[in-house]
Amino acid sequence: MATSNNILEINQEEFENYFETSKKPIILDFYSDECVPCEALAPKYEELANLFGDKILFLKIWRQKNRALAQKLGVFSSPTLIFYDINKNEVGKRLTGAIRKKDLIQQIKLLLGEEYVNQILASKPKQKREVDVIVLGGGPAGLTAGLYLGQAKLKTLVIDQDLPGGQVKITHMISNYPGTGEPISGWELAERMQKQVKEAGTEIISAVDVTKVQLNPKDHVVWIDDEIEIHSKAMILAMGSEPRKLNAIGEKEYSGKGISYCATCDGKYYENKDVVVIGGGNSAVEESLFLTKFVNSVTIVHQFDHLQANKTAQEEAFKNPKIKFIWNSEPRKFEKTPDGKMIVTIENVKTKEYSTIETDGVFVFVGYTPNLTLIKEELKKDQWGYVITNEEMATNIEGVYAVGDLRSKRFRQATIAVGEGTIAAMACEKYLSELKIKERELLGVQ
Ligand SMILES: Cc1cc2nc3c(=O)[nH]c(=O)nc-3n(C[C@H](O)[C@H](O)[C@H](O)COP(=O)(O)OP(=O)(O)OC[C@H]3O[C@@H](n4cnc5c(N)ncnc54)[C@H](O)[C@@H]3O)c2cc1C
């Protein structure tokens, strides 16, 4: 991995030396090879090292080759950033996973003071870039579009607010993606997809804040981290969807602190515990079955008196001794006891009676909502808020395509998203070449 003049690549012995002698605060970055979040962090780390390298010692250490130090410092994943002040006390929180620039800046403010950091950041010139196509969202739909556009030699940028891979990367195993031969972990499939996209020449910018989007025919604009302004003639919207919230009392407060929307991500924390699942569709039932690998019991709370999941999933759930059901009920309130148990107040929608369930954790699977909050322009949508396109994935705004889970349709799967990414990329290429011809004609160029 390349490092700039302001970042020192070191080993354990050198770290101990620098730690003893440095007169500056230190940031230590444990990285690994073949590590998607490390690759996403690298340009941000380098940019901030260039800005603050005279005041902070930016270090980088290869975790696999310096295991003893990693172990000593309690570092178990890459990347992990540790921050030491001038007195060599660790400050703030360690940053891991998909690290955003704003989190890194927040930590630097702890080392150098808010005023100084803001002053340096304000003096930095804003960047402006231009590409042929911006693909917003790097799930299977956006990555496939990026792959085809890269292979068509169009200057393409895939931008994701998280690491690329979308919902696939948080899916435990995928068994219906053709060509993998056998079930493949979602994380691995996502990694393979993004590698192939990069090899096709498409740039991926990930773990960034997309702060604004403007869809103006022939000049679409995306702002990243409030400082990079990117223009393109065509745009593919591929931001997928996110779990629908219940809007019950306490849901927001305990989200991530007892309430989860992802069994693959959080199931492991409930080994031999009791959990409640809210919902009764495919996701709720399939994820409940997955949770039974870890937990002692799953209580499914569903608003109707029957499940809406597919027949096979239903049959498996009914015969699983770990799964119980509470019918005709909806959650109204979430609370937490001082010893960390969740209390779920539910209402029986038929009798209107309230009751409570004490549990270790709650998983909510009540459907999805398209990620379109950034788009302020009048996109044509269906009654559920999903984007309506024609068969070429074109929306009602010129040069704007919509693909994958945010598109209006009956079924949502990775394989479908991939197909739509393909169509949009091909249609987009055609649109751009026709636009070029028109522009040349207008200019009178042969
Ligand atoms: C638990 C689970 C299991 C599944 N199992 C399967 C399966 O076995 N087989 C199958 O084919 N499908 C499966 N699916 C469905 C499949 O994952 C989705 O249909 C597919 O991922 C949709 O792809 P997408 O690219 O449209 O959206 P997503 O995968 O949702 O990707 C959207 C991307 O956009 C990014 N994004 C969101 N907002 C913004 C923004 N404002 N700016 C920039 N980036 C943004 C997100 O970070 C994300 O990376 C499963 C889904 C779930 C939840």
List the helices and strands and how they pair.
Elements: E1 7-10, H1 12-21, E2 26-31, H2 36-52, E3 57-62, H3 67-72, E4 80-84, E5 95-96, H4 101-112, H5 114-123, E6 127-136, H6 140-151, E7 156-159, E8 173-174, E9 184-185, H7 186-199, E10 203-205, E11 210-214, E12 220-224, E13 228-237, E14 241-243, H8 251-254, E15 259-260, H9 263-266, E16 274-278, H10 282-291, E17 297-301, H11 311-319, E18 323-326, E19 329-336, E20 342-348, E21 354-359, E22 361-364, E23 368-370, E24 400-402, H12 414-443
Parallel strand pairs: 1-3, 2-3, 6-7, 6-13, 7-10, 13-24, 15-22, 16-17, 16-22, 17-18
Antiparallel strand pairs: 2-4, 4-5, 8-9, 11-12, 12-13, 14-23, 19-20, 20-21
What does it look like?
38% of the residues are buried. The two termini are 46 Å apart. The chain is globular and about 65 Å long. α4 crosses α5 and α10 packs parallel to α11. The strands form 6 sheets. Strands 6, 7, 10, 11, 12, 13 and 24 form a 7-stranded mixed beta sheet that branches. A 5-stranded mixed beta sheet has the order 1-3-2-4-5, with helices on both faces. With 446 residues, the protein is of the alpha/beta class. The protein folds into 3 domains: 121 residues, Glutaredoxin, CATH 3.40.30; 191 residues, 3-Layer(bba) Sandwich (FAD/NAD(P)-binding domain); 114 residues, FAD/NAD(P)-binding domain, CATH 3.50.50. Bound molecules: flavin-adenine dinucleotide (FAD).
What's this entry about, in short?
Helix 2 (36-52) links the parallel strand 2 (26-31) and strand 3 (57-62). The chain is built from 12 helices and 24 strands. The strands form 6 sheets. Strands 6, 7, 10, 11, 12, 13 and 24 form a 7-stranded mixed beta sheet that branches. The chain has a 5-stranded mixed beta sheet with strand order 1-3-2-4-5, with helices on both faces. A 5-stranded parallel beta sheet has the order 15-22-16-17-18.
